[in-house]
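An instance follows:
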Amino acid sequence: MVELTSDHLKCMSLFEKLTGSIVKDCLIDEGAFVFVVKQGDLGKAIGKKGSSINRTRTAFGKPVFVVEDADTIEQFIKNMFANIPITSINIHDKMNTRIAYVTVEERDRGASIGKGGERVKLNRSLLMRRYGCDLKLISK
């Protein structure tokens, strides 16, 4: 169960007002915000030519990322890495821990990690928050 603080609720409310999309969850990091929007609301959250997402980035004063919600953990992982082709996703449960091994091509490794590791760090935190699952990135 995801715990929402008053800060989460305020951020979610502002994001919904600015974009018209429905927010299911919010990850607040010291360097960025990640919003999980209802399935089908990703286009609305981004807006025409990025108008909605640019407006939210200005309002929040930090990078803002949007992930579309999904029914399965595998689809959610694909949504987190939306513009990066994923070769495979393997989820392992061992001794009360759950780890998702996500494989990408070597040429996509940098994009999947992000500048200074920011993207993979945010995705790892979001996956742990939503599914109690760690994330390990593998390139081949």
Remarks:
- The chain has two domains: 6-68, 79-139.
- The chain has a mean pLDDT of 93.
